[in-house]
Design goal:
Strand content: under 5%
Low-confidence stretches: none
Number of strands: 0
Largest sheet: none
Helix content: 55-70%
Radius of gyration: 16 Å
Distance between the termini: 16 Å
Order of helices and strands: HHHHHHHH
Mean pLDDT: 95
Oligomer: single chain
Length: 165
Amino acid sequence: MRQILTPRTCRLLDIQGFDSVDVQELASVAPWLRLAFGLCALLGGVGTLLASPTILLVLTLIAALAASSPVHPFDLIYNYGIRHVTGTGPLPKRGVPSRFGCGMGAVLLVVTAWAFSAGHLVVGYALGGVLTFVVLLVSTTDICIPSLIYRSIFGWPRARDAHQS
């Protein structure tokens, strides 16, 4: 069955750095691009609720790896497992805007972990709450605030032709 992306979803994914990926290829895996962010939101939320510097520092490592590589570590769950069950293709490599967001997340996670370990619970809960909200937003709507920040600084992707989407 042929998958179709709405113009809105296509634009939001282009903002995240998938603007050079063929629309049909992107359409078939678009829902799975949210998996990594959903798992990050889950771990970040649990780490925040438990005020756990350990969980947050483990997530920091994952975010730092995601920032430094075009393949998010959690994409491997899909690429080496789920896609073989669903019969879909591999996820495309993540663009710089998405990786920039993971870098921002890594920095925020370190500060949040420090706040909890230093006994600054209100600061830790506030930072962890913001982080969890931002990651939950991209995992449910494809709206990536760090990618929007990146694009506002470094430029926006060209709009795709109407016949491509």
